[in-house]
Fold this protein.
Amino acid sequence: MRLGSSLTVAAVLGGVACAPLDDDVDRAVRAAGLLADPELLAIEASGTWVETTPGGAEVVRAWIDAGVANRRYHKRVLVEVAAPHPDGWVRTMHPLAYEAALAGGRERWGGDTIEIFPDGGPGGGVVGPVLARARLQHDADGDGRDEMVATPWRRLWGDGPIDLPEDDPWLVVTSPVAADGAPTDVVFAPFDDPGRTMIAAIDEVIGRAQAAPGERHTLHLAMFNVTDDPLIDRLIAAHDAGVEVRVVFDGRKLRPWYTWFRGDDRLVAAGVPILGGFRPGGAMHDKIVMIDGRRVATGSFNWEPGARTDNHEAMFTTGDAALVRAYADRFTMLAGGAQMARGGAADPDGVASVSFAPDEAPYRILGRLIDRAARTIHVAMFTCKDVAYDDDDGGPTSLFAKLAAARRRGVDVRVVVDHGVHEASEYHGIESPDDPSDEWLEDQGIRVVRADNPRGRYASMHHKLTVIDGEVVVAGAFNWYHDAAYRNDEDQLVLRDRVLATRVTGELIDLFRQYDPAWDPAEWPQVRVRFAVRDDRTRWGDQVAIIGDLPALGGWSASGGLSLAAWSWPTWTGDVVLPAGVHLNWKAITRRTDGSVEWEPGPDRRATVPTGVGHATIAIEAR
């Protein structure tokens, strides 16, 4: 975010109390009944210091200490920062940590993750003062349910007048739940376009808002990356149509030197409320979209052009009531709301469940599922570097140790990893050495395939998918490495659904087909596919064939492919056995009696070989 300023910055060498503001600035929190009693919560000191980044940008870093009444053991204390932007205000949320006991049954909680950008970075502008307030999870009204109470706003840095808008979009955020019961579905990029699916869902919400302008309609996002312009366009259109749009980013993306991250400036300029979420040493890595409270979308899919057209990605959508509720509550927490304890995350036997990192330890659930695997564990994991933890019996273990144990007991364990993450490589000018994790797995007898995506210089195999025994699907944003387990905001979805498991297995089969040099289709489920092409323009002696990008379809060679028969002319038919789930591009061609070949006009036809069936038919009318 380009937070420009013409103000001179001086480092505050010692701690000082944040300067109080007029009560009028806090009218929203007072009206909501959420103003904290100073004995319960108060900002007591703050400070700033100036740093220059390696790229030459000037950054003011700030710390805040809050005094908190020690009324209960578990506490959630945050500091919210409001920074003026040429087009509005940008909020960030920072967790505070316990520092020391104070006299009178109070505690000191603090944090130093706040960043202020006085020169605005590239293309900066003039701004005014930066404000801060502390927030505490507390049962303010005594009804047995927690809220987030807040201190008054205080000046943290900078001079000049303060013009906070009357609307306070992040004071109380509740993500509604009106689940429609839609079954869980999945879209895989790049063969399909998750962005197109999401745009259609947003347009449905816009349509409902326009049809009933007095009703509340919502689009709530917690999204690691937002740079795809068509998706940003639809969010802005939804906001303009009266939809309640709230967007939580990974807070680091607001840094002005992250010039590739365009979504923040566009959304602020359009008046869409955005919030940068900070995790000390980690990231807000979720990819959650709450669609009008009816459905939730999650998976590996970020809102980036490359994620739509180049990467291997998955986006799951569901209207399952329990999942929608769990994700709605999580969004509320990420948006600065209260965090409610849940019991469902610990049970790996549920038909559908979700767990969140770091507080709900999703790796433990995954480890139990691996322990129970009897036949197969098939994984596609972007970052696959292991997670170490203490097992349920207290002994040290890890996800890799459990995979190795599964392999020793005869389970077929296969893992697809991203080549750029695990081999020595360059990524946007940063050189990384070879990572030994994949070689360690191979030493345990596990089949490892390194996917080197050819669709772009930085295209990746970005999946976070596991299928166990052809029955259990594990998905979400959670990668297998330390930061994802212990520092980041992440989600892990577990679904016991054979039909969905066969579809995800089909995607994994297609990855093995593309990237495994030892690929053997006989090792995977096969489907007999009948192609039927109706073409009454063919004449005696002509030959219709199917040509495509699979070896069984000739590899686009006009002299090969699947030759069809005209027993039911003008419909030509022919059968071929293909691996289940494989994506294919293909066309019909006609070989004329004079030796010429006519290719079907128009774009390539596209299909995914069905999963969970023995026979399938692909029927078309010739163009």
Q: What stands out?
A: The two ends are 50 Å apart (CA to CA).
